[in-house]
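ASSEMBLY PREDICTION REQUEST
Request ID: AP-0331
Submitted by: J.K., bench scientist
Number of chains: two
Total residues: 819
Priority: normal
Notes: Please return the full assembly, not individual chains.
Input sequences:
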Amino acid sequence: MSFEPKILGFLCNWCSYAGADLAGVSRIQYPPNMRVIRVMCSGRVDPMFIFQALQQGIDGVFVMGCHPGDCHYLEGNYEAEKKFNMTTKFLSIINLDNRIRLDWVSASEGVRFGQVVSDFIEHIRELGPSPAGGKDPDEDLLVKLMAMEVAAGTDRMRALVGRERKLIEEENAYGEVVPEEKFNEIFDSAIHDEYIRARILLSLNKDPKSVKDLALEIEIDPSEVLENILILKGRAQVDMQEIVGITPIYMRT
Amino acid sequence: MAEKEENGVEKTRVGVFICHCGSNIGGLIDCKKLAEYAGTLPDVVHFEDNLYTCSENGLNAIKNAIKEHNLNRVVVASCTPRTHEPLFRECIAEEGLNEYLFNFVNIRDQCTWVHMKDPEGAYAKAQDLVRMGAAKATKLEALEKVSVNVNPTALVIGGGVAGMSAALNLNNQGFTTHLIEKEDQLGGRLRSLHKLFPHNLDASTLLNEIKSNVEKASNLTVYTSTTLKEVDGFVGNYDVIIDQNNNEIKLTVGAIIVAVGASLFVPKDIYGYDGRTRVTQQELEVKMKTDDVNAKNIIMIQCVGSRNDERPYCSSVCCMTALTNALVIKEKDPSVNVIILFRDLYTPGTDYEEAYRKAREQGVIFIRYSLEREPIVEEDHVKVYNEYIGEEMKIPYELLVLSTPLIANDDNKALAQLLKVPLEANKFFLEAHVKLRPNDFATDGVFIGGSAKWPVDITEAISQGYAAASRASTILSHDTLEVEGATSFLPELNKSLCTGCEVCIKVCPYKAIIKNEDDEIEIIQAVCKGCGVCGATCSQQAIVIRHFTNEQILSEIYAYGGREVQ
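STATUS: Completed
Returned structure:
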């Protein structure tokens, strides 16, 4: 049997959901692979939903909102884009970023709705089943997805995403506008760091480990593990359990 | 009768109703089987299929089932919530259930209508959607709508013909009305016009009549040389500061009408425009008013600066303006040659098309040019490639008249930001919906009429002024209003999570979130529109988006994915 992708769509009530209805009224035909969750605004789509959907084995996630400038809530779609970009950056670490898509469909674009949905379904069909999906999913990948969800949920990442537009377009508390390049640099390093920290925390949730064991599991340099352990200690999320020989063993607090 | 859910321990009892919608759904998928499938889902205690769930019979079936099975959640799988959710909400409310305990599943517009050649695929999709819908239903919570008082006073921004019409209409309905105009006198564009199509009424006659009505109006206060400075508040209760010659005046109003009109495009560096022998239609009308048109050869060029890449829209008034002015000139002196160079002529309706016929009868000559080969204007003649005969023509003129478009005002953006309403690509104001709500903004209590929305003629401006006033009166005529209950919310329990980072305040497009006197985040429910951006952004995930909570949305994701959740 050919692969039928399992696709989830988040549609904003005012534009894309209306466009989807119009596709129906116009009898535009497209493949039936996508299930829709209606939200009032694409800006409501918390990155957590996308990470959860992928952990559920869903093959592709499509977020749709109003065209830039057309948002029913003025600017919600710009916020959606920021959140989506962060999600994409995380997912690119495990090459799943091509399984999510953001697009704009207006209430009058019934034909276009059919096209973009068909196109996304075809794209996912070509990619094949998600390695996190099916009866026998890649457990390692699921752990990584979970770590991304945790990392994206940290107050640091959420605050960065929430402030991005203000910081780049207006100014920070010190009256400075942050250049986009500079912001991206900070943002990318935050993504990397928080992901590593989330991996450490999830691993220590299971059992206490040494820096060396963590480094092997996460496949990064032990010095980087140690650096992050110290930060997590500072956040009171990790503590040293004992020293075995000369090796400190860390645990979750 | 089912109890209202108040103690939170009542067992969830879901009823699922699958609508055939005649053959629209039932003709493609087996609705009976789908209903039976729904019956196997967690917490579903009643299921049935109806020929038309929205019919009297269908609604009664829902009511009976609520009584008989003590339902406290209702799911209808049928057309689309965008048209039918209000009906079903009302139906369950009549049976004593909170209207927010209803959930809609779209299996027609987004399923059977779009997968007509794939009944199996459509059925599988409908199954998933019903499962997801029932899952969300079990998580739904009763919500209350908030009631707000309405101040029966209106603010109209713009003293042109649309704004004056709106203000007079509201005044005549008995509402106290404030009309502000940024110029030092009322009238707007009407002040510069000469004859008004289609019946060549003197613009000044109409203007004087409207202005005298404004002066006589007892509930209407006019502020000239006045701009809007600040707006705060929400539908029924806007606190407004206006600025009249640097004096600030505070007003409180229940509704606001935007009727700021449009500006004239100045064709700088186009076709040798000089304001003397090469003028705009408006400048021609000023000349005509003072009887200062002596040219024997007049050429008019249409679509100057419009319907091109920079300004793709049609200004809608210029064809009729050119025809009217040509006719007035011809009437005065039939020997004057009037030649109109056009790309397309738009004269919709009965009267306007008549003007075109008349102009042809009077000997006005129409020559079609194309955007690819625009006319070339020389000192005393115009070279134009005539699309009809495929030849270049050289036509002499003493007066060249350019039909330029109305363009959005420079200060539209600032006003849009003050009012929190959107502009479209050409910087005109964007209504909530072109057909369903043509004179509303998405922001409750703010309305739009006239050329602020797109270029309209005087007749249309008056109609739209009335329309906006009528829409505003649907708010002003109420003592109180109910506003949406599905808003964002900071539960008491979550307050300790809040770190005061204020990201929510920054992302809220409606200023619905403030830091109150106790330095706590407070969400003003009457202002919140429920977009949910604050909840999706909140760094501590403390804000709950009612009716679209994390738990509710995740329940849909899990119901689709089908994996056990840790």
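REVIEWER COMMENTS: Residues 119-139 of chain B form the longest helix (21 residues).
SIGN-OFF: pending second reviewer
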